[in-house]
Design goal:
Distance between the termini: 65 Å
Structural class: alpha+beta
Largest sheet: 6 strands, mixed
Strand content: 25-35%
Order of helices and strands: HEEEHEHEE
Radius of gyration: 19 Å
Number of helices: 3
Oligomer: single chain
Length: 159
């Protein structure tokens, strides 16, 4: 029988990282019977095609996890984030996903998500120090199968 060693590896190679990630993925597929996942990706560009914002989501098992919502500082406070989020939710719903979740920090814009219909389901206080990490969720497709509206303006406005 092989002996087992446990060690901190400060710079693990790609093969080691892949072995661990693949092992977890395979265990999850065995447990759920579902190894499918999708990317939900929305980009906002200015008239020069420069990226000024975006939303990134990882979708699987009926849920989309919005991991990134970003707007360039020059374009903030104009409704762009809420419009991009609405488009990303609609795309996830179109793909068959019914639920969304994300996390944000108290120093970011938790009100953006609350105003977009998200509800808080968890908090980590003092993370980072003096702030709170906030976990939120939202139903993006009703039980009737009706998708959320995709009516979003394509140009800057007073949103």
């Amino acid at each position: 029988m092989n002996s087992i060693s446990i060690a901190v590896e400060h710079s693990p190679n790609q093969e080691t990282k892949s072995a661990i990630q693949k092992g977890l993925f395979e265990a999850n597929v065995q447990g759920t019977g579902d190894g499918n996942s999708d990317l939900v990706f929305v980009a906002a560009r200015d008239s020069n095609s420069k990226v000024i914002g975006g939303v990134v989501g990882e979708a699987y098992w009926g849920w989309v996890n919005f991991t990134t919502v970003w707007v360039h500082p020059e374009h903030r406070r104009r409704g762009l984030a809420s419009r991009m989020l609405k488009v990303a939710e609609a795309e996830a719903a179109r793909m068959g996903y019914t639920q969304a979740y994300l996390d944000t920090f108290s120093f970011q814009s938790p009100d953006l998500y609350l105003q977009s219909g998200y509800e808080i389901f968890g908090r980590l206080e003092n993370f980072p120090a003096g702030s709170t990490r906030v976990f939120m969720r939202k139903t993006i497709m009703g039980h009737s199968g009706n998708q959320i509206s995709t009516d979003t303006p394509s140009t800057e406005g007073n949103a």
